[in-house]
Amino acid sequence: MVLAKFVEVGRVVKINYGPQEGRLATIVEILNDKRVLIDGPTTGVQRQVIPIRRLTLTKFNLKGATRGARTGVITKAIKKSDPFAQYAQTVAAKKVAKKALRAKLNDFDRFRVMILRKRRSALLSTQLKSLKKNTGGKAQTQAKGGNKKK
Amino acid sequence: MPAKKRTVRIGNWYKSDDEKVHFVRKRKAPRPAQLRKIVPGQVLILLSGRFQGKRVVFLKQLKSGLLLVTGPFKINGVPLKRVNSAYVIPTSTKVDVTGVNANQIDDDYFKRTQAQRRKNEQGFWAKRGELTAEQQTAEKTRLDGKRNTQKSVDAALITAIKKTQLLKQYLGARFTIGKTTRPHELVF
Hints:
The complex is a heterodimer of chains A (150) and B (188).
Chain A: E1 11-15, E2 24-30, E3 35-40, E4 45-51, E5 55-61, H1 71-80, H2 83-88, H3 91-104, H4 107-134
Chain B: E1 42-46, E2 55-61, E3 67-70, H1 73-76, E4 81-83, E5 88-94, H2 114-122, H3 133-162, H4 167-172
Antiparallel strand pairs in B: 1-2, 1-5, 2-3, 3-4
């Protein structure tokens, strides 16, 4: 297996543990085999030393990040090419966002989701029934979706 | 609660010694319970009683401190009702109550009438026929009056509710907890 994600200057990382849990930052400097200096001016992460153990490496790199770059330089580099926005497009990031959204639902929202799920399920079952009927029972059960739920 | 006053009756009793008058805190007018950020029009979940789990609309706080709520009656069967704010979960859903007039309803609206009290006295064996004719008509007019008040208060509410999709069905449904719901994590 080829190793692709390296701890290097510019590597976008996600913080796993601590008060900044869940936030993204870039590696700015490597201090020793266990600690790095990270900075995330656009994601609310203060420039800080953090053990690598508390990070997950993502596959994205910040172009233009130089070793020991100051926060201003990092911010400029982010403005040119935003790897954090790219990360937000990944499936993992979307899952996290979905979970956060679901946690925020209020009582009325939860009710609406329940009704929409029921409607979608009803649509799916009528589709399935018609498919089964048309192909004489040997239907390929490819469920075609109704509304996108939250 | 009426203040207990230290009264000295003239005639029978004369003070022999200087009686120590203990410091009597002046009772101010009864303060209704502090509303914890519940706003008229807010949807509340009732937690106890016959209508537990029902979602109702909050109208106003009465002088006694209790909350005046209504289903509306047509939507979920909850009439104009007084409810203790401690047995209520306020949700963040709000209905527009600018057209609703509940000004004439106060604690007296919910007071038991003589006819009702008499009926309660007679207990299990009380039948409607045991009220006098005038009491019966009085009861009938009282109930008709209540029905009309309910209708007039609910009319504006229901038109406001119909503007939001699924709000009517939401108010008609009961709030329930299942095996996997974590009430402490729910956002209302």
